[in-house]
Design brief:
The structure is a homotrimer of 348-residue chains. In chain A, 16% of the residues lie in helices and 32% in strands. The first copy, chain A, is built from six helices and 14 strands. Chain A is globular. In chain A, helix 1 packs antiparallel against helix 5. Chain A has 348 residues and is of the alpha+beta class.
């Protein structure tokens, strides 16, 4: 075994194990500017002189830090839950991330297992104290190193995770509030209706350099995203790139957003490849008042990203279609690459 | 009609109407660095510690702000005139843009019309007062929403715009003056001759990610530049990208330039696509003294960008060729993608 | 001869001639962030709040400055030697570069000649005094302008250059020292053995926009890297891009590195093209104590970058293979694009 780190295998994890993730990162102003160049993000607070860090920048930088620990040997990223941002983060802050193993289950194939981790990202402004910036659960299927069964085959531990983040847990970033003149639209919380569909109309082509630059920017070193030769010319686009593109497209129709406050659940339904064009539509699932902010309101949004199909141009498009194999059940339309359930905060 | 903004149509405009364009932008140092990465720009004042913002960065950021208001439904960008930079802009400044409708003319097809707008971009340094940074006219052919004729079919209003910017109006950025040791060449105003042609010899390939990153960086969200799927794999390159590439190439032979001071007129003669390689040559149209700056002089330059043809390698190349359809008249050589008429300032 | 600079030819150089290279550059924080986006570099000191400039950023910015002077008419970049970094460089510093011609030899073909130059890059912090940041020798084969022989055909002058940088000359950047928690691995100088091979396992696809953005970022204007049309769609990847990618990949297994301290020699054995995927492996050639730093040690490393072959997956891979044309002699494996001999500093 040489020194070049090949990542942890299922056998390397144990319940309650804690990891400090390598390579602390400064959330610099330039990081935010590079994010704009790669996504076209327009939400005013993240491109004006506020000094606010885009919550997605914090997310990707923190997520990137965990890759070396948890997912270099991933078979599949199965999901995340209870993703919560804990208030404003300011440019120049240092970010570091820790994770704890909270669940383990070996698969019956004995070649892989599922690892559940709880993640915490801390930030500190220059000279300041650390505080929590982001917390989330994630579960990943990871290769086993060998054939010998582990105790998690017979006695798996599966953690209880929140099905959704409660409204009371949301911490809106009031500092991101801007006027309609600055955002370009007047829609407020009162204007949205449960069941409403918002087509965003825009489009974003995925170029090889775009998705790799994004993934490198956040120091996510999972080889699957970069090894064109080893993957017959088709390196897999990092799912987080799709998240950010879809969210950037969803500026249209949610111009007054203060920024994503929580993710309830997310499914990367299909892979995305360079050469695809992404589109997005948003569905309002739920509206909630915020007890700690009378002038703001929360929207629970279902954000659907499709590839090579613009939902706004297909009148009858629905993300959920009848499953021919399971009568009476639905499945996601095969153009869907992302199905994200999240909480957004907007002014009333 | 959903909330996802689909842009203004011809019927949405009225004479004298004023728009404050959405999404104010900080002109950060990182924006300038990203500009260098995407263009290779070498003019010293915009990559040293001066804090000066490249005038093209101001231009594209302001132009990008107007897109949501004026050109999401553009059939064609017909031209611009009287583009004037109003002195130095400093990194860290906030930029916002307004425009006023000054002309309207419905086309006889009744499916589109021409909108003339006068644009003003303001900058403010942190804590400072706003001042004008850039003003320009632009006219765009915009789709109509419906078939009913407007009053601008029978009674069009076409504004008078300046055929060129007067020398007296130029506001040279003295702060950008550097020594020949720093610029790499000694050419001054006295060395240039009217009629002179300058081949720049360099070349710049246009890659998909280059032009889209550039366009996203400046938050220009016109779908035509990003919708690879919807445009059969050929999203249109933003004309501003070609402007910046040609100007960056024109450093060769104009190394002592203080920066573009005004644009008299510009024609995007042909579309540019990813896969093209751009070349540039410059022609000195006119020389003028500057009454407010005895040690500086103005050059009126015709900057020609060609694709897939290096003018320096074709001895007999001229941008204007005989038009076979119109004896005695010329048209632009079909390799020409940009024909720009602008004022540059250089030391004497 | 027009004003567009076409570069110096062999006849333009004379022994002892000194050039101040054009376009001083600020080593901004954004430059470092762009470097991360283009390479995925993870060494903590260059992405945290230290303000340290990545030594490769200094290298490429300085090298880029010399291109206009020395290598626009290069037939081939033959090599470099004695590359030494002279201690920490801080973000915000201004960089400028000079070079001196120290050797000249016209080739017997009379169409080209070799120019040896000694290069020095200086940095100055804002308001501070200049100090040397980087020094190196380089030799380049340059086209002749004409056919007339020069005195360097009959009387060539070939300088003596160091075969390697001496350990005593290394100036470790102690400020880059981080804990294993931050770097992700505990390997120190004592853990490395002469002869050891480190497979880095990662991969990096080379996309057109990646290598051109990198080359533009550092204002290297050699046309060969950008002229897709003129080179039948195959612009040559800047060798420095390969250096940086290979070094970024070599983070795996050398996580505690303080940063490259010197280059003894380097060979770009084969060209790299967009579409290639790069891999890297490192060999420990030599270990040395540092008299000026008892808690640090130096490793002499041979860094091999391959294209489209992952050395870690080929058990019997060796960079040196038997040369079928020269029995008993070896040559580099034809997948090798870079063979770099350098000094790294790590904690004991």
């Amino acid at each position: 075994m040489g020194k070049g780190f090949q990542g942890n295998y299922f056998e390397d994890f144990s319940l309650g194990q804690r990891f400090a993730c390598a390579v602390p990162r400064q959330l610099s102003p330039a990081l935010g500017e590079a994010y704009v160049a790669l996504t076209g993000e327009r939400t005013p607070a993240w491109c004006d002189a506020s000094g606010l860090v885009n919550p997605w920048v914090t997310f990707h930088a923190a997520f990137g830090q965990t890759v070396r620990t948890i997912s270099l040997n991933a078979v599949a990223n199965l999901g995340y839950a209870g993703v919560r941002w804990h208030g404003p983060v300011w440019a120049g802050s240092m970010l570091r991330t820790e994770l704890e193993v909270v669940g383990l289950k070996e698969n019956s194939s004995r070649t892989s297992g599922v690892v559940w981790v709880q993640n915490t990202a801390w930030v500190a402004e220059p000279g300041g104290a650390e505080r929590v910036a982001l917390t989330w659960w994630r579960w990943v299927m990871v290769h086993k190193r060998g054939e010998a069964p582990t105790r998690w085959l017979e006695a798996p531990v599966v953690p209880t995770m929140p099905a959704s983040v409660q409204v009371e847990e949301l911490l809106p970033v009031r500092e991101a509030l801007r006027s309609p003149v600055e955002t370009g639209a007047a829609w407020g919380w009162n204007d949205y209706a449960v069941g409403e569909r918002i087509d965003t109309w825009d489009a974003m082509a995925v170029n090889p350099s775009d998705h790799m630059s994004f993934t490198r920017l956040f120091q996510n070193s999972a080889k699957v995203h970069f090894d064109a030769h080893g993957r017959d010319g088709k390196p897999l686009v990092y799912g987080g790139f799709v998240l950010s593109q879809a969210y950037a497209l969803a500026f249209n129709g949610m111009e007054n957003r203060l920024g994503i406050a929580a993710i309830n659940a997310g499914t990367h339904a299909n892979p995305t490849w360079a050469g695809d064009t992404l589109y997005a539509s948003a569905y309002i699932l739920e509206k909630a008042e915020l007890s700690n902010a009378q002038d703001l309101g929360a929207l629970r949004v279902r954000l659907i990203a499709t590839r090579n199909l613009s939902p706004g141009l297909v009148a009858e498009f629905t993300p959920d279609v009848e499953d021919p194999k399971k009568p009476g059940r639905t499945k996601l339309h095969n153009s869907v690459v992302l199905d994200l359930d999240y909480w957004e905060v907007v002014p009333r």
